[in-house]
Write a structure and sequence with these properties.
The protein has no helices and eleven strands.
Length: 155
């Protein structure tokens, strides 16, 4: 017998999931890196014994209070409740400010949510703008620097 379950992307809870509460502390934070257009969520687990049931394969959804980028999603295949300290989301569009977000981690059988009120912006991390194969040629009368842009940083 085959059962099909249609799920709206905005509705991640289903009847088969066990809700795991108080998995992360209130100081779980996110940082927006405008140069490479990414949000990094820094996870602070409470080490609640019930939350260790979260499996290695989960989906992470970050719902922002923002009309340009409402939901970011990614699949993690090596998640560990106690050891995964950050989740990085790549953005399709830039935005100016953020004050609130909800992170939902879920699998078919487990789900947890945490509200994120700490939001920082990393403004000057330019270490990923150029490839590591850059060269500097030193001559008697000149310097020649060759760099390869990665395309990750805005102009």
């Amino acid at each position: 017998m085959l059962f099909l379950l249609a799920v709206n992307i905005n509705q991640t809870f289903n009847a088969y999931q066990t809700v795991r509460e108080n998995c992360y502390t209130d100081d779980t934070a996110m940082t927006y890196n405008r140069n490479i257009n990414q949000i990094t969520v820094a996870l602070r687990p409470t080490l609640n014994p019930a939350c260790f049931a979260l499996p290695r394969g989960i989906e992470a959804q970050l719902m922002l209070k923002n009309d340009k980028v409402p939901i970011l999603s990614r699949v993690l295949t090596d998640f560990s409740y106690a050891n995964t300290t950050e989740i990085v989301f790549t953005l399709a569009a830039t935005f100016d400010t953020e004050t609130f977000a909800v992170l939902t981690l879920f699998s078919y059988s487990e789900i947890t949510q945490t509200h994120i009120f700490v939001f920082d912006e990393q403004k000057s991390a330019l270490d990923q703008c150029y490839a590591v194969d850059s060269t500097l040629e030193v001559n008697a009368t000149s310097l020649n620097l060759t760099v390869t842009p990665t395309g990750l940083c805005s102009q």
